[in-house]
Fold each of these.
Amino acid sequence: MSQCNENDQKSEYVGKIILWVGVGLSLMLVAVMTFAAGEPTGHAAARWNPLHFKPAIELAEDKECLVCHAEVLKPSVRAQSPAGVRADQSLAWYQTLEVYSGNQDTFHRRHLVGELAKKLMNLRCNTCHQGHDPRDEAPGTSATTQATAYTLRKQVDPKTCLMCHGQFNHEVMGLPGPWAQHGETFGNNCLMCHEGIRTSRHNVNFLKPKAIEAAGRESADHCYGCHGGRAWYRIPFPYPRHAWDGMDKDVPDWAKNRPTASDPRFLLDVWIPPSVVPAAATPASTVSPAIPATSAPAAKTSSKAKPKSRPAVARKARKSSYVRIQTSKGSQHVSQI
């Protein structure tokens, strides 16, 4: 009898061991499957994500890009350069214009969440980044590679940058020389001429047209900043020649090959840009116009008629500390230091 009880106890003990081993293996299997399902994609695989190529990149939102590229919006300016120059004791080239305020900042922050960017721009990640082939970063090298929207060994087409970082085209405008040298002749006021010339401007989805017009009345540096003041290239951008009221029917020679409309992907009715993450851009509609509206009748406070309000006159643009002129093969390159 005692031997039977002993055998029963052993069988029960073995059964418990088998049960606990089975439970442990099941839990381990669940843990492994959960970890495998949540394991992040490796860098090599992420480079081939469809968002990096057309057509998916054209519909990508900033928040989708920033899932992996959030570091581009983190403040990461060196306190001191490798050569020992302190950032708080020097001016970067983009700080030479009076419309820039604040300390030095990184490239992407200046274009997406900087004070001037939020005031005048609606730039998105795919405004500049239109996809590329990570295999060799060369367009059209195979039957499957992306053939457009970027240039050899570059992730952004330089023509996109040229729109806001080209030279001041004083020859076409009929000016005697660069704006930095002859701006005072025109009272440092771009609207002295452009109040009635090429008035159909800035109507693209990466800019805020109303805010730019108001800013141009405050300071000519707002205009000059994107039209020669922050030039990266030695050539100007051939802007589309949109028709405007009072436009001369005779097309000048320099404009005969110019387009008459902006690139379709930049048209305002293509998409309405959402808020930039993490800092939302201020809508253009909230910017007060520089000239008060005169359509509504003003309340009479006295028998004497009040003089009409005058439009704001652009302030005198601050000159850069240094202007460098280089002559190469008969052409001059003017840059501000």
Amino acid sequence: MQKGCLISIGVFLILLFGIIWILRDAFEPEYYNVELDQRIGGTLICDVTYNADHHSWSYMIAYKYRDVNDSTHKIGYGSYDGREWKKDEQLIQYGKWLILKTGNYHGSDKIFIGDLEANEWNEFEFSAASIEKDSIWNLENIHSLPGWLPSEAFVNEIKDGKIHVIYEYRVDKINTKVTEKRVIEYEIHEETGAPKMKRISLLP
């Protein structure tokens, strides 16, 4: 009887430590590298840290660009929190500027705008906070609840120096499904590279 109990306890402990080991391994960060060929030439190098737990997951990505002359330029960090990373980033050329769209913290995007000759990159985020503090937005007197979820701002298109962002926001404190969406257009300044809000339109 005593021997049987010891065997049962031993099996239980083995199973317990096995489960702990599996769970620990499952939630440890994963590190890997992805290289994306660019239509403008060169390669976008993505050094990825992937984290996951019971509730969500995230990709933290360090971007570097290896140009056609084999020179490497550090760009910056992007993050995809609670959404999948599509591994489809493409650098876009606009005048002397290179533009890279990536994820920001939860519910937002950002872009990097860089000048390879100066080897300098700046980042600009598109989020509820950055949108609602803009003077163009405030002039529209739009009713919104920026601190209430859902609240998401994602870059939809970058073309010919224009950036289109779709911003979804709450308009009702009780019903979470009552939201509005607006397309916000930014223009990139040819000299400074900074995007500036130009117009806002309501999506049907």
